[in-house]
Design brief:
mainly alpha, 2 domains, flat
């Protein structure tokens, strides 16, 4: 929710929520690691994905509070990957799983058309630049 101008209290609230959610995700990972063990934890791809998100969050939080300047701005972009945790619902929510499968199949079907469309766009862009540049 970056925008200009943003009030300092909104930034502080966002930082607090970031720490709360980071703590929840970290606690979930630790509980799963202790409860399942490392071997069983790694066998599930969703757990590995969660571990990667938590590790990126650790880097984000540590760089955010280690630097006084806004040098960790690029790393904080990894916060968006937390939204991909919604796809864990596909395991238990059958309609959502069906929807994701349908979207995946549709993307396979339109991939050739998309490549052809991009080629036409590039060709006509170059042609337009050549014809109308002066």
């Amino acid at each position: 929710m970056d925008r200009y101008p943003i009030r300092a209290e909104e930034t502080n609230i966002q930082n607090v929520f970031n720490l709360v959610f980071f703590s929840i995700f970290l606690a979930e990972m630790v509980v799963k690691l202790v409860g399942l063990g490392v071997r069983v934890y790694i066998k599930d791809r969703f757990n590995v994905f969660d571990a990667v998100i938590v590790i990126l969050s650790i880097v984000d939080v540590s760089l955010t509070y280690a630097t006084t300047a806004d040098g960790a701005g690029a790393i904080s972009a990894f916060r968006a990957f937390r939204l991909l945790r919604v796809f864990k619902l596909a395991k238990s929510w059958k309609e959502f799983h069906k929807l994701i499968r349908t979207i995946g199949n549709s993307l396979k079907d339109i991939s050739n058309f998309s490549i052809l469309l991009v080629m036409f766009m590039i060709t006509y862009t170059l042609l337009g630049m050549e014809l109308f540049s002066n």
